[in-house]
Amino acid sequence: MTGFVTDSKTQSVLQFPAEDAQGGAVLTPGRLAWRRFRRHRMAVAGTLIMAALLLYVIGGSFVWSESYANRTETGNRLAAPTLEHPFGTDAVGRDVLARTVYGGQISLLIGVSAVLVSLTFGVLVGALSGYYGGIIDSVLMRFTEAMFSIPSLFLLIVMSKFFGGRVPSFDVFGRTLSGSVIVIVGVIGLTSWMYLARLVRANFLSLKQRDFVLAAECLGVRNRDVIVRHILPNSLAPIIVAATLGVAGAILSEAYVSFLGLGVQPPTASWGNMLENAYNYLESAPWLWFFPGLFTVLTVLSINFIGDGLRDALDPRTLR
C-alpha cells in the first residue's frame, strides 16, 4: 500500500510508491497495466498469433523474392499443394505461399497507414473541439456528424473506382506498389476518424476541468502546451485501444473493395485481391481462397483480442 515517512530534519512528508501485494517490485502504472494484460488470456493468445503472422510476412520476404511471387508458370496453373508449392498455385501458375507473404505486407501496411491518417484527423479535431468549446466545438462536431452520415464503404468503392487507375505506381523499400494503395489508405483514413474524434473530445471535456490543467493555465502555459503536454498524454489509453481496433477494420475494408476488384491492383498482391482472384475457383481450387482468407481472419481476430486486452489493462478503474 502507499505509506508515508517523515524526515526528522525537514519535517516534510515524503510519499513512497506502493509495492505488490506479495511484497514484490514497485507497481508503476506501466507494470500494473502489463500485469493486467498478461492475465487476459485471449489478448496474450492474440499477441502470439500476431507475432507469428509478422514473422511470416516479414521473414518470408527473405526466403522468396517478389519476382518469384509474381512469376507465372501457365503450365503449372491451379496445381494442388505439394512440397514444391505448399499452398498450391493460382490460375496463372504463381506460387500462393509467396503471394500470401507479400500480400500480407500490403494488407498490414494499408491497415497501419490508414489508422495513422485516422489518428491524425481524429485527435486533432477532438482535441480542438473538447478544449476550446464554444463555436469551435459546434462547427467541428457538426462537421463530424455530417461525415458520419456518409456511408464509408460506398465512398471507398466510388473513390477506388474513380482514382484507382489515375495514381501512378511508386516504390517503397524496393517494392513497386500500385497507386491504388494510396487511394485506399487515404479513403479509409479520411472516413474512419469520426468515432475517435468524439472519443478524444469527451476525454478533453473531462480532463480540462481537472486541477493540474487549471494550475497550468494559471501559470500562463500556452494552450498548445496544455493540450500536448498535459491533457493528451492522459488520453492515450482510449486512443491506443481505438487505434488497435481500427487496424482490423482497415484490413477488412481493404479486403471488401479488393474482393470487388476495386482495391489493390496487380501486380501488387494483397490478401483481398487474392480472394477476388479465387472467386471462380471456390470448389475446384479451394486453396486459392483458404490461405489468404485464413490469414485475414487470424489477423483481424488477433488484433481484436489485443484491443480488448489493452482496453482492460489501461482502464484506470481496474484495481487488479
Largest sheet: 2 strands, antiparallel
Strand content: under 5%
| Rg over alpha carbons | 24 Å
Name the poorly predicted regions. Answer: 1-18
By CATH, the topology is MetI-like fold
CATH superfamily (homologous) name: MetI-like
| Widest sheet: strand ordering | 1-2
Number of strands: 4
**Global outline:** elongated
Description:
The chain has helices at 29-39, 41-59, 66-69, 96-132, 134-148, 152-163, 180-190, 194-207, 211-218, 223-231, 236-259, 271-277, 287-313, and strands at residues 3-6, 13-16, 170-172, 175-177. Mean pLDDT is 82; it is low at 1-18. It is mainly alpha-helical. It is 62% helix and 4% strand. 35% of the residues are buried. The strands form two sheets. A two-stranded antiparallel sheet has the order 1-2. The protein has a two-stranded antiparallel ribbon with strand order 3-4. The chain is built from 13 helices and four strands. The protein has a single domain, classed as MetI-like (MetI-like fold, Orthogonal Bundle).
Helix-strand layout with pairing:
Elements: E1 3-6, E2 13-16, H1 29-39, H2 41-59, H3 66-69, H4 96-132, H5 134-148, H6 152-163, E3 170-172, E4 175-177, H7 180-190, H8 194-207, H9 211-218, H10 223-231, H11 236-259, H12 271-277, H13 287-313
Antiparallel strand pairs: 1-2, 3-4
Helix pairs in contact: 1-13, 2-13, 4-5, 4-7, 4-8, 4-11, 4-13, 6-7, 9-10, 11-12, 11-13, 12-13
